[in-house]
Amino acid sequence: MAAMKVKSRQSFMQYVPTVSAGDTKPETLEAKVLSDADKLDSMGAIGIARAFMQAGEHGNGIEDTGAHFHEKLLKLKELMYTDTAKGFAEERHELLQKFADALEDEIKSAGRESLEWPLQL
Questions:
Q1: Residue-level pLDDT at 5
Q2: Entry pTM
Q3: Does a structural domain hold residue 13?
Q4: Number of Cβ atoms within 10 Å of the Cβ of 67
Q5: What is the CATH number of the domain that holds 64?
Q6: What CA–CA distances, in Å, run from 94 to 15, 67, 101, 120?
Q7: Residue 74 resides in a domain
Q8: Nearest partner of 80 among 33, 116, 118, judged by Cα
Q9: Is 3 contained in some domain?
Q10: Count of domains forming the chain
Q11: What are the pLDDT digits (tens) for 10-45?
Q12: Which domain holds residue 70?
């Protein structure tokens, strides 16, 4: 993939707060690339690890992280703007889905019905 030349640091930095926060829909190519990169960073194996780390940092448990997969992470694939990001997202989404399914299967095999309850390990 060819590197994209940004016109100026200022033109790039104007997109960081709004795109990362999800406040506005990106309109320029630079903003779309930044938005896609931000979402891709939350997906895949590293995204799974980060989700559990952040949950632990906030005192949340496995069930909260599992719910986060369904509420946010598994929806990211559909929010990509560029074709390149869509390709990367497809692969990372597959890993996320397999992990979420395996987690839910193990939780159910432990006698629980869903991720809505407090998990006692």
A1: 55
A2: 0.73
A3: no
A4: 15
A5: 1.20.58.1910
A6: 29, 17, 11, 28
A7: yes
A8: 33
A9: no
A10: 1
A11: 555 555 655 555 567 888 898 899 999 999 999 989
A12: 28-109
Does 16 fall in a domain?
Answer: no
Q: Determine if residue 120 is left, alpha or beta; phi over 0 gives left, psi from -120 to 50 gives alpha, anything else beta.
A: beta
Element (H, E) at 104: helix 83-109
Q: Please write the tens of the pLDDT for every residue from 80-107.
A: 999 999 999 999 999 999 999 999 888 8
DSSP string, 32-72: HHHHHHHHHTTSHHHHHHHHHHHHHHTT--HHHHHHHHHHT
CA dist 3 to 30, 33, 91, Å? 11, 11, 22
Q: Which amino acid is at 118?
A: P
Per the CB < 8 A criterion, the answer to whether 96 and 44 are in contact is yes
Place of tokens 């074709």: 83
